[in-house]
Amino acid sequence: MVTLTILGNYGPYATAQGACSGYVINADGFQIMLDCGNGSFSKLQKYADYATLGILVITHLHPDHYSDIYCLRQALKYQMREGNRKEPLFVYLPEGPESLVNEMKQWEDVFTVVSLEEAKKAVNDFNLFQLKFFPVQHQIPAYGVQFCVNHQTLLTYTGDTGWFPQLEEHCRGSRYLLAEASLREYELAERGQCHMTARQAAMLAQNSGAENLILTHFFPENNLHQQQREAEQNYDGKIYMSGTGKTYILQP
Ligand SMILES: [Zn+2]
Q: How far apart are the CA of 83 and the centre of ligand 1, in A?
């Protein structure tokens, strides 16, 4: 069974009870964490066993997607010292900003850093599942992620991205689309290069043939009811509004 649990769904800062970007895929006990934003590590401890985490993917190095890696590093160090974990964690990262990547590469006692620039060139096969990565449009190097079983795409996560023509092609045929919906419509002209509205996320799901759409990466000020309505007007499939602790069984 494959599940997706939302740890945090806010950016660039979270509400009092919430957390920034963080998600866990559990594939028959193998845990993949997607993004590690502020607050997501404390939530992770409630919904997963971080000591046995298999892979961490950081889609881009903005604080709302990576900042809890500092906490995770300390926690994994402790677990390794206690003998609860033997191997470093594989961390997939973009190649920039360089200063951050270099800092994380130094923590080789707990992390084995893998470049997304390299990983995107091929299907990354882990027997039970495959991971694919594709570049998206943001202020800094950023990637979307696909989780596939038997080479069928079960989940596509957009990360943070503005809409661009090839995005539909990247997301084509995914059963579930976890898409960012940061912006309100009036913000589009100013910030549309880097983020999407709920309407754009819905059109992306519609045009790429996704069967389920999970909206995420909300600004705390957003009106989620309105965003849901905007999505419903542009998409025929099932829409879910993400929230901390929500778990979705990803049906193949
Ligand atoms: Zn973000």
A: 34
CA of 128 to the centre of ligand 1 (A): 29
DSSP state of 17: S
Domains of the chain: 2-249 (3.60.15.10)
Q: Which among 10, 49, 57 has a CA at the least distance from the CA of 33? A: 57
pLDDT tens digit sequence for 201-223: 999 999 999 999 999 999 999 99
This prediction's pTM: 0.97
| Dist. CA 121 → ligand 1 center (Å) | 24
Q: What is the C-alpha to C-alpha distance for residues 83 and 69, in angstroms, rounded to an integer?
A: 20
Do the Cβ atoms of 252 and 206 come closer than 8 Å?
no
Residue 161 alpha carbon to ligand 1 centre in Å: 9
CA angle 177, 183, 187 (to 5 degrees): 150
> How close is the Cα of 82 to the center of ligand 1, in Å?
34
Tokens of 218: 């909300």
Instruction: Tell me how many degrees the CA angle 192-193-196 measures, rounded to the nearest 5.
Output: 45
Match 């740890």 to its residue by tokens.
7
pLDDT digits (tens, 9 = 90+) for 91-125: 999 999 999 999 999 999 999 999 999 999 999 99
Q: Ligand 1 centroid to 62 CA: how many Å?
A: 6
Ramachandran angles phi, psi of 230, nearest 5°: -60, -35
Q: Are strands 2-8 and 247-249 parallel, antiparallel or unpaired?
A: antiparallel
